[in-house]
Design goal:
Layout (H helix, E strand, L loop, with lengths): L4 E4 L8 E7 L2 E6 L12 H4 L15 E2 L2 E2 L2 H19 L4 E5 L5 H15 L4 E3 L6 H11 L9 H5 L2 E5 L3 H4 L1 H14 L2 E5 L12 E3 L6 H14 L5 H7 E2 L1 H11 L3 H5 L3 H13 L3 E5 L1 H4 L4 H14 L9 E4 L6 H6 L15 H11 L12 H9 L5 E5 L3 H4 L3 H10 L2 E6 L12 E4 L8 E4 L4 E5 L12 H11 L11 H13 L24 E2 L18 E2 L18 E6 L15 H4 L6 E4 L1 H6 L7 E5 L4 E8 L7 E5 L32 E7 L4 E7 L10 E7 L2 E8 L2 H15 L3 E5 L4 E8 L2 E9 L8 H5 L9 H9 L12 E3 L4 E2 H9 L6 H8 L9 H11 L1
Helix pairs in contact: 2-20, 3-20, 3-21, 4-14, 8-10, 8-12, 8-14, 17-19, 27-29
Bound molecules: iron/sulfur cluster.
The site of iron/sulfur cluster has 14 residues, from helix 1 and helix 7.
């Protein structure tokens, strides 16, 4: 076997090293034992990367207006379109919208073109949606966007506080590192989250705070620390400003902290006591903190507690922002946000001048541009007339998604570069440019602990796909900027980026990787920029070198519940899906974990609303609706709903979270409040439900609710309708496509089943039921699609849905590595045979692969105990 290719996982901000290896069976991946982020571990998503390398959904050629064109024509059209817009409307009428999925080199090239040569700072990124509040909080406190610590701190801490993060599902390998440390040294863990998530598997204390009340909670902590003499006076006096004002603000909130958070006072005090008594404390925070109209204040409330106790920059202590995307940090380093310039510089005149000289750039933008939400509103208002969207899907991910779609539909020039041919955003693009995907592109990414790693190619470019940096450089050259964009490859871009970080730096800016400019790019091994831990001895990047404690006060979320919209909606991620599913949706084993979106609600709320567990329900806000299956669980607070953010119009009808959300943003960071909306929930009341299993991409005319998912080489579509005619129309369409089916009907039970054959070969099956969801074993049925069914018995067995015992696909898959169904584990537990994670692993293999499912297995064991 050839040497494995060392690369990096393209999903979460943990940034795990991956070894890609070619065998006769194709490419497989495993964790890189030498990578400092994961030391060989991978989670279920990383482990399934090999399943997602097919080309069936790829964009392979440039398209203009849906017609295939040459690269020369496409580049010419982009260059002419941007130039004409600038000539007519000025540079502010042009925008780029980028992605934390881009490599640093792609990001650098795009920013350089826009902010240095086109003269527009309207360059923002989907990272605005996940960590802009952390950036703003860091800059307010530290004078720079610096993550002070490293992953090893999780293993050296005595107390780990996890705020607004389902670490077990969103950063599973870090969760595993923490679980191992806890096992070895008894690390105490506090989880602060409105939901009782899988992360609570490790929690000594779970504080189920009211959504949006984090500032009140941490102000209570700061007041407690001040009152209990847990302050590091030397650090505060030597290295900070703003302590007295911040404690005064904290005291204004502290007396009502229990009432505002809804947490019993005794639990709050227990947390405060633990924090005060534990020098080695790490506070991890993520989207639950950041995605808020008070996100920046929440971040600073956390930083205040660490600065007041001097718990920063030393082993096992510090505030730690977890980034959602693989290269959100790299994007921040090159100025991917509209309020930043490259190399962590802001728009101060000296920085603009420095960039102008370094780049020899003719039109450096001198003021901040439009942040994501404002940018798409400006497109809708006709103030931005040309936008280039790279590697992201704003028609899905932004709040008020329908307004975003309308904005793109009216925009005179929408350019989209992506590796996927069909996304909700690509459908709205005039010019579509085929980009390289993971395994094909070459460059670097930076993870949450500031470690820069290579993503290396191991697959040839498919079709005419090209690197994003190449497209940017070609457009720049076509616009007359040859000299600034004459790179021959990503290595040249990285070297320029590294030199810029050191240019006239002299220790004044945190980001300096100048030493890497001379490194062998191809052989680059992972390295962390800055000190291992920053700020151990102060040295902040503010003008006076001191960190700033920021006085903050609790502000409730903007959306207010009412009699019409009595529930608070929270949105988030699932363990085995990534963003808008364009990659993870290709994997049957990942799709098996949650084959459709669930709407989580407290059982008492469901009962009061007359909604049955497992029934389809409709969630509505002032902006739109969403249909999903109700999951009643005590993990939810009373009055709160939760639903996932992954599904979109390519994978489902009526399951787009962004359609429900208001575009309320944090006034400092501009980050949208994606975790809080006022909604109502009502019964969907289908008259039939069904599952269709066939090859991919069948149209479903008139069906109001459907969800597609991969299963065993075929596609399963869960579907439902609220009128009989809809089922009749679907049957007519399928008959038109496949011919007359074999049919089984049992009107008394409201059951109808159909199997379409082509000769002896099975093409499709449809199971309909008028009394809830039909439950044939989906993967078992899918295994017959395309197969010859010569024996009548086999056909009868399929129409009867009579899967043999142990057939795959009867329900959700819990262990993605070994395809072990949740029902199989539940049955073994119920029979009393298996009473521990180890016993389940030994008997069923579940949990013995990547380990991502262990918290769920432990949860099932706890429920049964
Ligand atoms: Fe990828 Fe999982 Fe590692 Fe995140 S934790 S980088 S998704 S393998």
């Amino acid at each position: 076997m050839a040497e494995p290719i060392r690369t990096t996982c393209p999903y979460c901000g943990t940034g795990c090293g991956v070894l890609a290896e070619k065998s006769e069976a194709g490419w497989t991946v495993r964790g890189d034992p030498d990578h400092p982020a994961n030391f060989g571990r991978l989670c279920s998503k990383g482990a399934a990367l090999g399943d997602t390398l097919g080309l069936e959904t790829r964009l392979l050629h440039p398209l203009i207006g849906g017609q295939r064109v040459s690269w020369g024509e496409a580049i010419g059209a982009v260059a002419e379109g941007l130039a004409a817009t600038i000539a007519a409307e000025g540079p502010g009428a042009v925008a780029l919208y980028l992605s934390g999925q881009l490599l640093t080199e792609d990001y650098y090239a795009a920013n350089k073109l826009a902010k240095g040569f086109l003269g527009t700072a309207n360059v923002d990124t989907n990272s605005r949606l996940c960590m802009a509040s952390a950036v703003a909080g860091h800059r307010r406190a530290f004078g720079a966007d610096t993550v002070p610590g490293c992953y090893a701190d999780l293993e050296e801490a005595d107390l780990v506080v996890i705020v607004g993060s389902n670490l077990a599902w969103c950063h599973p390998v870090l969760f595993q590192r923490l679980a191992a440390a806890r096992e070895a040294r008894g690390t105490r863990v506090v989880v602060i989250d409105p939901r009782r998530t899988e992360t609570c598997d490790l929690a000594d204390l779970h504080l189920a705070l009211a959504p949006g009340s984090d500032v009140a909670l941490f102000n209570g902590l700061l007041a407690y620390l001040g009152a209990s003499d847990a302050i590091d006076r030397g650090f505060v006096e030597g290295w900070t400003t703003g302590y007295a004002e911040s404690v005064a603000a904290a005291w204004a909130d502290a007396p009502s902290a229990a009432a505002v958070t809804g947490i019993p006072a005794a639990d709050l005090v227990r947390f405060y006591e633990w924090f005060a008594a534990t020098p080695k404390t790490v506070t991890l925070f993520s989207q639950g903190v950041n995605q808020s109209s008070a996100g920046t204040d929440k971040v600073n409330a956390i930083l205040n507690a660490h600065l007041a106790t001097g718990r920063i920059g030393r082993p096992g202590m510090g505030p730690f922002s977890l980034t959602g995307q693989p290269n959100a940090m790299g994007g921040r380093e090159v100025g991917g946000l509209a309020n930043q310039l490259a190399a962590h510089m802001d728009f101060a005149p000296g920085n603009c001048d420095r960039l102008r000289r370094f780049w020899n750039a003719p039109a450096v933008a001198e003021a901040e541009g439009l942040k994501a939400v404002d940018l798409f509103q400006a497109i809708g208002a006709g103030k931005v007339e040309a936008v280039w969207i790279m590697g992201t899907n704003p028609a899905v991910s932004l709040p008020e998604a329908d307004a975003v779609r309308k904005a793109l539909a009216r925009c005179p020039l929408v350019i989209a570069s992506d590796c996927v041919a069909d996304t909700d955003t690509m459908r709205l693009a005039h010019i579509r440019l085929p980009a390289l995907g993971w395994g094909e592109k070459s460059g670097t990414v930076t993870n949450s602990e500031r470690t820069i790693s290579r993503q290396r190619p191991f697959l040839p470019p498919p079709g005419e796909a090209r690197a994003d940096w190449w497209m940017v450089a070609e457009v720049a050259k076509a616009m007359g900027f040859e000299a600034g964009f004459a790179w021959e490859g990503p290595g040249g871009i990285f070297r320029e980026h590294a030199r810029l970080s050191a240019f006239e730096n002299e220790g004044r800016r945190d980001f300096d990787i100048g030493a890497a400019a001379d490194a062998d790019y191809d052989a680059l091994t992972p390295f962390q920029w800055g000190e291992r831990r920053m700020f151990a001895d102060g040295g902040f990047f503010t003008p006076d070198g001191r960190a700033r404690l920021i006085p903050v006060r609790h502000r409730p979320p903007v959306a207010v519940r009412s009699a019409h919209y009595p529930f608070r909606l929270n949105t988030g991620r699932y363990r085995d899906q990534w963003h808008t599913m364009t990659r993870t949706g290709l994997s049957a084993r990942l799709s098996g974990h949650r084959r459709e979106p669930l709407i989580e609600i407290h059982p008492s709320d469901a009962a009061e609303a007359g909604l049955a567990d497992g029934a389809l329900v409709r969630v509505e806000s002032r902006h739109g609706g969403y249909v999903g299956r109700l999951h009643a669980t005590p993990a939810q607070r009373r009055g709160d709903l939760f639903l996932p953010m992954h599904w979109n119009d390519c994978f489902a009808a009526s399951a787009l979270a962004g359609r429900l959300l208001s575009a309320h943003t944090d006034p400092i960071s501009g980050q949208p409040e994606s975790k809080h909306e006022a909604v109502r929930v009502t019964a969907f009341a289908p008259v039939f439900e069904g599952v269709l299993i066939a090859g991919a991409g069948l149209a479903l005319p008139g069906i109001p609710w459907w969800v597609r998912h991969k299963t065993a080489g075929a596609e399963a579509v869960e579907l439902a309708g609220d009128r009989e005619e809809q089922a009749a129309a679907l049957l007519a369409a399928l008959d038109g496509h496949f011919g007359t089916p074999l049919t089984f009907r049992d009107p008394a039970r409201g059951v109808a089943r159909f199997a379409w054959m082509e000769g002896e070969r099975l093409r499709a099956v449809l199971f309909l039921a008028s009394d809830g969801r039909p439950e044939p074993a989906r993967s078992w049925l899918a295994g017959f699609i395309g197969q010859e069914l010569a024996a009548p018995l086999e056909r009868a067995q399929i129409l009867a849905g009579l899967a043999p015992a142990g057939a795959p696909g009867a329900g959700p898959i819990l262990c993605a590595c070994f395809s072990v169904a949740a029902a199989t584990i539940a049955q073994a537990i119920a029979e009393g045979k298996l009473t521990s994670v180890a016993a389940i692993g030994a008997a069923l293999k579940a949990g013995t692969g990547c380990g991502s499912c262990i918290p769920e297995i432990r949860g099932m064991l706890k429920v049964s105990a």
